[in-house]
Write a structure and sequence with these properties.
With 369 residues, the chain is α/β, with parallel strands linked by helices. It has helices at residues 15-26, 44-52, 64-67, 69-82, 98-107, 128-145, 154-161, 184-193, 215-226, 245-252, 267-273, 289-296, 326-334, 345-352, 357-365, and strands at 2-7, 32-39, 57-60, 89-92, 112-117, 148-151, 168-169, 201-206, 234-239, 258-262, 276-279, 300-303, 318-320.
């Protein structure tokens, strides 16, 4: 059995949690076993779900910012030394903080120490002075103590390790099987159940409700289009939950062309229902899976300049527009029409290009050889 300890900042609905759980659910459990370290504030339902899958989850009192570098290192090393399981690898997903856990893992004798970058900018707010002091220290620690450097995109690797560094890109993937043979009748019924007419043009936004995903920009586009009679049939559908959900709900409550669905489990059907998917993110995106999901459904996509162009995988469905050019966003949205059903064509193309879950899991597990 090959034992891997994953370190995730706050286990929950984030992209890092999702991709690791995808591997956990699809790997050969007779050969691999995953345990987890997360921090106080992680979602209890997610922790319970993972424990029910047979994995241990250790919850630390805080992350490096909260506990300080020295105490975090000491507590992490203590956790490793007291663990009944001897880990063959540690796989750390905490960005700039990764080096502290990797240092403790090196001290504890874990041979395979993987640093994994999922973002393209520092996510937490910090003063300029803190960044000047902390960033070089953190970078030294994860560069020195990792035996493998991995990223979800070329841009996220360049951010964490530098453009001249040697790192492995493991692109995120999508469960393409779920996009095969989706019934047009099911799509129609879902559209009707959400209160939309056959001729309504649906602009989808599927993301966690948080500042980086920039839902406020989505609402500003919806407000401007609602003022024009010729775009009355353009409707915005925001799918997801998160810390900003109640605020976004309040801002949208008097906007008849905006619908918030909350969290949904039928994403493939929704992607087939949408005529366009937009992701006007602020800096920080690594390689958003939602863009692969949209393309698997054959859906047209518009992204901001802060989303890596690597999400345009060759299907010619993605267009990038700067956030500063609101008129270009509005013009592009006005050109959207009710999309025709493309069947399974795009999902099959993604599978052939290596973006299936099966290939993703295989690429991921190769890190542990």
């Amino acid at each position: 059995m090959y034992n891997v300890l994953h370190v995730i900042g706050y286990m929950g609905s984030g992209g890092d949690t999702s991709v690791v759980l995808d591997v956990l659910d699809n790997m050969d459990k007779s050969k691999f076993h995953f345990d987890f370290v997360t921090h106080n504030g992680a979602k209890e339902d997610c922790i319970g779900l993972v424990r029910n899958k047979g994995s241990k989850v250790f919850v630390m009192d805080g992350d490096v910012r909260q506990l300080g570098l020295r105490r975090y290192y000491k507590d992490f090393l203590d956790l490793l030394e007291k663990s009944e399981t001897k880990y063959d690898a540690i796989h750390v997903h905490t960005g700039m903080q990764s080096g502290v856990a990797l240092s403790a893992a090196r001290k504890a004798g874990i041979p395979n120490r993987i640093c994994h970058s999922h973002v393209t900018s520092i996510q937490r707010k910090a003063s300029v002075i803190k960044k000047i002091v902390a960033v070089p220290i953190f970078r030294y620690l994860y560069m020195k103590n990792s035996t493998q450097k991995v990223s979800c995109s070329r841009d996220s690797g360049n951010f964490l390790y530098g453009r001249k560094a040697d790192f492995t890109v493991v692109y995120n993937a999508v469960d393409t099987e779920r996009y095969l043979n989706i019934s047009p009748q099911k799509v129609y019924e879902t559209k009707k159940s959400l209160g939309f007419g056959e001729n309504d043009i649906l602009i989808g936004h599927v993301a966690r409700m948080r500042n980086m995903k920039n839902q406020r920009f989505v609402l500003s586009l919806a407000e401007k289009l609602s003022e024009q009679a010729e775009t009355a049939n353009i409707k915005f559908v925001l799918v997801g939950e998160g810390t900003d959900f109640e605020e976004i709900k309040r801002l949208a409550e008097n906007m008849p062309n905006v619908t918030l669905t909350g969290r949904r489990s039928d994403i493939p059907v929704l992607m087939k229902m949408f005529d366009c998917v937009i992701l006007p993110s602020l800096p920080g995106e690594g390689f958003p899976v939602t863009m692969l999901e949209a393309q698997a459904a054959g859906c047209r996509c518009i992204i901001s300049e802060n989303v890596t162009n690597e999400v345009e995988v060759g299907l010619k469905l993605v267009k990038s527009i700067p956030l500063s050019d609101t008129e270009a966003w509005l013009s592009e949205l006005k050109s959207v029409s009710v999309s025709k059903d493309t069947g399974s064509m795009y999902a099959e193309k993604l599978m052939a290009m290596g973006f299936s879950s099966e290939q993703f899991v295989k690429n991921w597990l190769n890190l542990y050889k």
